């Protein structure tokens, strides 16, 4: 029948839909009658409302039909939730062994069943972030028939200026340029500032797509170790003396992939080095809204003399909303806008309006607070479960969406990675984050998915640790 696991990140109605689709696809035929709402709810021990919601979704997709007074019946062969033929899982021949292939796997839902290594929050965590009524109302506004200004919607930039001021960052609206996310913001900075052969310093480990962007720009990359309190400043100073870098990239709050946050002392030291050796800094704050309020930003200390600050709403509000921004020193803003125009002309009025409305309504703050609570709970549960399964973590505390763990040296990481791909598990090996190829036995775990009993059983096969046995709802009780 249908097995419900309350420890999974998917909502109960999602699990009921999934179970029904499997039954329809494997055992039930067209016109077969389905259990009544109350009967199915009693059998799998969930509320009638949960089953009713699942049935309504399948009705909307045309998978089942409803006959008043008679009940629900199979309409046709099982389809995916969006009404299309279900994608063939693992149909992509590309394993996530480099940044481009990893992103292609991460954003294609047909390539994996368990997104343990992804950088996205579960869909169920984002359901209430943007009310559907907001989008419907915005579509009827005159603004939707005009392009967004190349600088970005003024109302959104005003909201961003107010939001950043609460974190101690003074960002005038004229210094804010909207983008299609952090990746786009970094691309604008690279095209504006870098020439082939320029020296650029990045952290080791660091965001893998950023590394590929810099290499494509022709930059000479130099790596400094990422410590628990920020980049290794001694190593950075040695490099700065030798090569005089043009740019230094860092993630101060909730670093990707380690989850660490730079200390105030490290932030002050980094700015001091920038002044002494005359380089510019790019502060990537893609996950900053999920960080503790006490986290210090370089942009707050520097007042945009040497710092380019980039942020995004894609990770926190919705992956479907590709809205980010870059705040730069006054003399560089026109150069960033020029590169934006040459690349994409302008942004999306609809998407920027959605973000602006969400910020103005106060709904964004409430949504972020909910996410912080969920992440704190999932972070603790995932770290405990993975530790029992044989993964080792640095004793230094980390927070946010990611855990950075190391499997035993005896583990054949290549074989584990291959097996995960074949079983529909998106794993992110540590070496993909390292410009030096280090961290071969590290993995980046998404805490919202890493405690899934199915994944814990998988990793235990390689580590020799212990993992809990998944149980059905009938065994767990309602």
Shape: globular
User: In angstroms, what separates the terminal alpha carbons?
Assistant: 17 Å
- Extended strand count: 13
CATH topology of the largest domain: Aspartate Aminotransferase, domain 2
Task: Give the strand order, joined by hyphens, for the main sheet.
Answer: 3-10-9-8-7-4-5-6
Helical/strand content category: alpha/beta
CATH superfamily of the largest domain: Type I PLP-dependent aspartate aminotransferase-like (Major domain)
Provide the domain count: 3
Please write the CATH class name of the largest domain.
Alpha Beta
Helix coverage percent of residues?
A: 40-55%
Stretches where pLDDT falls below 50 for ≥5 residues? 77-93, 469-478
Please state the average pLDDT score: 89
| Main pleated-sheet profile | 8 strands, mixed
- Strand content is 5-15%
The helix count comes to: 18
Radius of gyration: 24 Å
Describe it.
The structure is a single chain. Strand 11 (392-393) and strand 12 form a beta hairpin. 41% of the residues lie in helices and 12% in strands. It has three domains: 12-74, Winged helix-like DNA-binding domain superfamily/Winged helix DNA-binding domain (Arc Repressor Mutant, subunit A, Orthogonal Bundle); 99-127 and 365-476, Aspartate Aminotransferase, domain 1, CATH 3.90.1150.10; 132-362, Aspartate Aminotransferase, domain 2. The chain has 18 helices and 13 strands. The longest helix has 26 residues, at 363-388. The two termini are 17 Å apart. Mean pLDDT is 89; it is low at 77-93 and 469-478. With 478 residues, the protein is of the alpha/beta class. The relative contact order is 0.13.
């Amino acid at each position: 029948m249908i097995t419900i696991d309350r420890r999974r990140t998917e909502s109960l109605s999602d699990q009921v839909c999934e179970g029904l689709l499997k039954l329809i696809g494997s055992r039930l035929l067209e016109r077969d009658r389905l259990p009544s709402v109350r009967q199915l709810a009693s059998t799998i021990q969930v509320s009638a409302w949960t089953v009713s919601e699942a049935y309504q979704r399948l009705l909307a997709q045309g998978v089942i039909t409803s006959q008043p007074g008679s009940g629900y019946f199979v309409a046709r062969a099982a389809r995916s939730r969006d009404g299309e033929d279900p994608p063939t899982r693992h149909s992509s021949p590309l394993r996530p062994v480099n940044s481009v292939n990893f992103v292609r796997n991460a954003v294609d839902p047909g390539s994996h069943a368990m997104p343990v290594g992804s950088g996205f929050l579960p869909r169920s965590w984002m359901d209430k972030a943007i009310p559907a009524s907001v989008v419907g109302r915005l579509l009827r506004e005159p603004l939707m028939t005009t392009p967004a200004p190349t600088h970005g919607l003024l109302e959104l930039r005003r909201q961003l200026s107010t939001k950043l001021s609460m974190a101690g960052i003074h960002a005038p609206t004229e210094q804010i340029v909207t983008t299609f996310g952090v990746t786009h913001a970094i691309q604008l900075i690279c095209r504006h500032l870098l020439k082939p052969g320029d020296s650029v310093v990045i952290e080791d480990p660091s965001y893998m797509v950023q590394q590929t962007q810099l290499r494509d720009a022709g930059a000479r990359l130099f790596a400094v170790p990422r410590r628990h309190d920020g980049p290794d400043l001694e190593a950075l100073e040695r490099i700065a003396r030798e090569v005089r870098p043009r740019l230094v990239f860092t993630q101060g709050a909730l670093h990707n992939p380690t989850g660490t946050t730079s200390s105030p002392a490290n932030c002050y030291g980094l700015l001091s080095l920038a002044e002494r050796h005359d380089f510019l800094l790019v502060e990537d704050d893609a996950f900053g809204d999920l960080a503790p309020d006490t986290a210090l930003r370089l942009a707050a200390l520097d007042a945009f003399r040497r710092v380019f600050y980039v942020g995004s709403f894609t990770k926190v509000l919705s992956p479907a909303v590709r809205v980010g921004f870059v705040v730069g020193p006054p003399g560089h803003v026109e150069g960033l806008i020029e590169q934006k125009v040459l690349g994409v002309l302008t942004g999306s009025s609809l998407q920027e309006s959605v973000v602006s409305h969400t910020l103005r309504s106060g709904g964004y703050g409430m949504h972020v607070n909910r996410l912080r609570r969920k992440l704190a709970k999932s972070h603790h549960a995932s770290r405990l479960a993975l530790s029992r399964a044989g993964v080792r973590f640095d004793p230094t505390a980390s927070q946010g969406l990611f855990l950075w763990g190391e499997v035993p040296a005896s583990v054949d990481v290549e074989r584990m990675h291959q097996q995960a791909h074949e079983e529909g598990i998106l794993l992110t090996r540590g070496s993909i984050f390292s410009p030096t190829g280090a961290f071969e036995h590290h993995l980046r775990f998404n805490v919202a998915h890493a405690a899934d009993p199915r994944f814990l059983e998988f990793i235990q096969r390689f580590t020799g640790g212990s993992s809990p046995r998944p149980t059905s709802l009938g065994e767990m009780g309602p």
